[in-house]
Amino acid sequence: MMGGICALVVGDAEEDETELCAICVHVMVPGRPVRVLPRCTRAFHHDCVHRWRTISSRCLVCNAWVTQRSQGPNRRHRPPSLI
Q: Would you say domain 6-53 falls under CATH 3.30.750.200?
């Protein structure tokens, strides 16, 4: 598990059910490992999601947080105001 992201292996799919990695837009190959985001359950290639996490903490497709967040209010970081 990588920061709440589960590792799975792609299973065989019907020809019309082929899934693509939304990051690199290549086919998810049966038998190859993928990473599944915990909140939206979307799957991406391991290397793709690892690189994506260096630039964003949200899903590329639906904008859900990649990792579980605290149950507190949704507050954005605000820089201190200048006086």
A: no
Report in angstroms the alpha-carbon separations of 39 from 6, 14, 42, 64, 67. 11, 26, 8, 7, 7
Cα→Cα distances 66→18, 22, 45, Å: 23, 14, 15
Q: Is the pLDDT of residue 72 over 50?
A: no
pTM > 0.85: no
- Name the nearest CA neighbour of 41 among 27, 20, 57, 59: 59
Enumerate the domain spans of the chain.
6-53
Q: Which residue has the tokens 């190859």?
A: 32
